Amino acid sequence: QVQLAESGGGLVQAGGSLRLSCEASGRTFSNYAMGWFRQAPGKEREFVAAINWSGGNTYYADSVKGRFTISRDNAKNTVYLQMDSLKPEDTALYYCAARNTRVIPSAPYDYNYWGQGTQVTVSS
User: Per residue in 25-50, is it b (16+ CB within 10 Å) or e — as a string?
Assistant: First the structure.
């Protein structure tokens, strides 16, 4: 079992920045690919970004490319999502997810473990 706990969400004005954190516990963190997803009210959960076990490879949704950066610190069992130039359409509940794999999954069904989510609200 892997337990995931997100933090860092909040209310920010359009154009602002937030950094989300997701701390993992329970298993060897460095064995896991990590992903960030988001879900707005009335919408399906969508992929945001993912990073492989070492941090050497990343993958982003087109909607956030160039604005968001995913990174990880295996010594701290933590993955981060730096969000810059935020837009009102980025408003959602953000989840981190984990999967014991060497590839970089991008679909929700590819991930085994999920956190509870942290709310991000961007005002216009």
Answer: eeeebeebbbbbbbeeeeeebebbbb
- pLDDT for position 27: 75
Whole-number pLDDT of residue 51: 97
Could you give the CA distance from residue 35 to residue 22 in angstroms, rounded to a whole number?
10
Residue 5 burial (CB < 10 Å; 0-12/13-18/19+)? middle
Q: Are residues 6 and 118 in contact, defined by beta-carbon separation less than 8 angstroms?
A: yes
Task: Encode pLDDT of 73-93 as tens digits.
Answer: 999 999 999 999 999 999 999
